[in-house]
């Protein structure tokens, strides 16, 4: 198996996003009303990002990089995940979400813009997750000091349903962070 086929197989085996639970959305009108959310809350009920992979599951292990079907599947998956639906009720809410930091803007010691992703290695070692599982974070005050380049953090700030794209991935959410802190699970 070659690179594209291996990456598709990793995605097929690693998808755990299909389980969703409803999220009671509170009015976040008060600045102190921070709602702790989990990654599953960013996925609308009924949306199953792994459905596309299950459609091709039996063939994925047999595909090679130079197989046109692997290339078509990878492109179909990229388009589907870039247009993943969002939870509109979360728009403009103050939330706290923990995940892994993938630096976009910074000097190696501090970051002012980064991707927040649900699992280690997302966007770097494997194809990125669906865009509704990637959050672009901009620090509102000053850059966040980091101890390592792929650190687990908890981000607090105003969440918006806004699509953005960069060289690594597409994100369906943006947080204007008022607080970024190391996260210890």
Describe this structure as you would to a colleague.
- The structure is a single chain.
- With 185 residues, the protein is α+β, with helices and mostly antiparallel strands.
- 20% of the residues lie in helices and 31% in strands.
- It contains three helices and seven strands; from the N terminus they run H-E-H-H-E-E-E-E-E-E.
- Strands 2-3-4-7-6 form a five-stranded mixed β-barrel.
- A hairpin with a 3-residue loop joins strand 2 (93-106) and strand 3.
- The longest helix has 15 residues, at 68-82.
- The termini are far apart.
- Residues 1-31 have low confidence and may be disordered.
Topology:
Layout (H helix, E strand, L loop, with lengths): L2 H12 L20 E2 L14 H10 L7 H15 L10 E14 L3 E8 L17 E5 L4 E2 L6 E14 L4 E13 L3
Parallel strand pairs: 1-2, 4-7
Antiparallel strand pairs: 2-3, 2-6, 3-4, 3-5, 6-7
Helix pairs in contact: 1-2, 2-3
């Amino acid at each position: 198996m070659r690179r594209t086929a291996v990456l598709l197989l990793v995605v097929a085996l690693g998808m755990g996003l299909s389980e969703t639970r409803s999220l009671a959305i509170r009015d976040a009108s008060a600045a102190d009303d921070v709602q702790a959310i989990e990654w599953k809350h960013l996925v609308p009920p009924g949306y199953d990002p792994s459905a596309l992979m299950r459609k091709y599951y039996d063939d994925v292990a047999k595909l090679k990089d130079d197989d046109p079907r692997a290339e078509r599947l990878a492109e179909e998956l990229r388009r589907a995940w870039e247009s993943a639906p969002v939870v509109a009720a979360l728009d403009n809410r103050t939330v706290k979400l923990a995940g892994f930091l993938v630096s976009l803007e910074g000097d190696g010691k501090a970051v002012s813009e980064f991707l927040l992703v649900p699992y280690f290695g997302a966007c770097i070692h494997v194809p990125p997750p669906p865009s509704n599982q990637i959050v672009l974070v901009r620090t509102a005050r000053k850059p966040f000091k980091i101890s390592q380049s792929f650190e687990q953090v908890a981000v607090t700030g105003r969440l918006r349903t806004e699509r953005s794209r960069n060289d690594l991935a597409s994100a369906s959410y943006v947080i204007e962070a008022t607080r970024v802190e190391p996260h210890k699970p």
